[in-house]
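Many introductory courses stop at the sequence. We go one step further.
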Amino acid sequence: MPAFQKRLKELEKSWRGAKPDQDKAFERMKDGEYRFLITRAEIGESKNEDNPRLQVAWEFRCIKGQLINKTTGAWDGLDSERGLAAIKGRLKVMGVKPPNRLADLPEALEKVLDRKCVAKLTTRGKFQNLTIIRRLKKKKVAEEPIDVEEGL
């Protein structure tokens, strides 16, 4: 039996209860502070057919609480000072030095992936802003003291 079969069995009940639907509407998370894992940070074009722009698309997955595994996103334009400032700000808070050259941005974005953070969601009009408050660092495991017998 392949290694993932056990995990599939555990998800069987959810599978049976899921209704087929490819066009499920995007659901916004409620405003507030959440713990997230950054699962995507990549440069691409927006989906605006009339005026596509170059942007960084971010995806954040909630890792704690009632909304665990829900995702939200942020999109920062590379064609505006505001968007560039947001990208540099996100990198800096996450402990990644913003590159001197924009051409080196993809490598910096790679370093941010799989890092955890606390971020705040705030709705303004029809848009929801995401502000990274702080990076969550891995807790260091305390070393256990070594018993040293006297006289050795």
